[in-house]
UniProtKB/TrEMBL annotation, chain A:
V-ATPase is a heteromultimeric enzyme made up of two complexes: the ATP-hydrolytic V1 complex and the proton translocation V0 complex. It holds the Pfam family ATP-synt_F. This is V-type proton ATPase subunit F. Coiled coil: none annotated. It comes from the Eukaryota. The lineage of its organism: Eukaryota, Viridiplantae, Streptophyta, Embryophyta, Tracheophyta. GO terms for biological process: proton transmembrane transport. Subunit of the V1 complex of vacuolar(H+)-ATPase (V-ATPase), a multisubunit enzyme composed of a peripheral complex (V1) that hydrolyzes ATP and a membrane integral complex (V0) that translocates protons. V-ATPase is responsible for acidifying and maintaining the pH of intracellular compartments. Belongs to the V-ATPase F subunit family. Keywords: Hydrogen ion transport, Ion transport, Transport. InterPro entries: ATPase_V1-cplx_f_g_su, ATPase_V1-cplx_fsu_euk, ATPase_V1_fsu_sf.
Automatic annotation (TrEMBL), chain B:
The lineage of its organism: Eukaryota, Viridiplantae, Streptophyta, Embryophyta, Tracheophyta. This is Vacuolar ATPase assembly protein VMA22. It comes from Forsythia ovata.
Length: 130, 208
């Protein structure tokens, strides 16, 4: 009971996005875009001029905000901050790595699947048999 | 007496093995469902990018780009409801539900569209090998309190579109299906991680 993870419930959580312009345009048209009183948005458009620091800061901000339930991040962007994404282990917000136009989805790089692939490795099978 | 005790121990060990096997099957099903959903999302997004490129071609790149995004105060019209879902003793999962605006001024048609959208999603869920739809379905929730001010909210939804020029909803179809898939994948992700934790716990118990 002491180690139980608290699930943060919400009735109107946002979907945050860190992706290329076309992906974000499409999702904004679906109505997920949010601009608050401080003109802070729930998305970051990544292009050739976006620095890794900006992406890191956006990821840290979106994963610590209490009003965000899901963070969508293009997988090629996630690869730029792989250490941050892989070390994230909270239940909320959920981090989903999505494909982009020029970079198809690769299950081998997905942080969730990377975490669980240990169960399929020969080391885990061998240790279970000892 | 000894035979009775040994048969009881055998039954207990059989039950223990079957629970562990069930946990492994749940985990494998979750991984399978996750991969299938990611594949579906990839296809749907690809279709969306194609439509966006087509709209850009017909209307001009200057009318569909990020420089036209408005940064005035604007709440999201599509949000999430996050609840707790019990996954066993001392274990809870987050459960996501999509809450989105109507796409029609007619209230009856609104609910029909919602029902149609939910039925379509359930049909797609049926195609997954993992059949536990009640556990994995991406439920679509339509908050009724917003329904009363539908006229106002319709204008607010158009606010984003005004920023992109006079683009009608028919020219650029909103990517609503991927949103439902995103919610479904998020729920599947939570199940996958829960199943993984359980299998890992079983392995640690077995090695002790």
């Amino acid at each position: 009971m002491a180690n139980r993870v608290q699930i943060r419930t919400s009735s109107s959580a946002l979907i945050a996005m860190i992706a290329d312009e076309d992906t974000i345009t499409g999702f904004l048209l679906a109505g997920v875009g949010n601009v608050d009183l401080r003109r802070k948005t729930n998305y970051l458009i990544v292009d050739s001029k976006t620095t890794v620091k900006q992406i890191e800061d956006a990821f840290k901000e979106f994963t610590t905000r209490e009003d965000i339930g899901i963070v969508l991040i293009s997988q090629y962007v996630a690869n730029m901050i792989r250490f941050l994404v892989d070390s994230y282990n909270k239940p909320i917000p959920a981090i989903l790595e999505i494909p982009s136009k020029d970079h198809p989805y690769d299950p081998a790089h997905d942080s969730v699947l990377s975490r669980v692939k240990y169960l399929f490795s020969t080391e885990s099978v061998a240790s279970g048999r000892r | 007496m000894e035979r009775q005790e040994s048969s009881e121990n055998g039954r207990e060990s059989n039950e223990g093995i079957s629970v562990k096997e069930e946990n492994i099957l749940n985990f494998l099903d979750s991984v399978d469902g996750y991969l299938i959903l990611m594949d579906s999302l990839s296809s749907t997004l690809r279709q969306g990018w194609l439509e966006l490129a087509s709209a850009r071609h017909s209307m001009g790149a200057s009318r569909i780009n990020s420089t036209l995004f408005d940064h005035k105060l604007h709440p999201a019209s599509t949000t999430l409801q996050v609840n707790e879902q019990s996954a066993g003793p001392d274990r809870e999962l987050p459960h996501f539900t999509l809450c989105k605006w109507a796409s029609s001024n007619n209230p009856e048609k609104y609910f029909e569209e919602a029902k149609f959208g939910e039925d379509e999603l359930l049909k797609k869920s049926n195609s997954l090998r993992h059949r536990d739809i009640s556990h994995n379905s991406g439920n679509v929730c339509f908050p009724t309190f917003r329904f009363d001010c539908l006229g106002k909210m319709t204008r607010d939804q158009g606010f984003d579109l005004e920023a992109l020029g006079s683009i009608s909803m028919r020219v650029l179809k909103p990517v609503t299906n991927p949103l439902e898939m995103v919610v479904e994948i998020s729920n599947m992700r939570a199940s996958l991680l829960c199943a993984y934790d359980q299998v890992q716990k079983d392995m640690e118990t077995a090695t002790k």
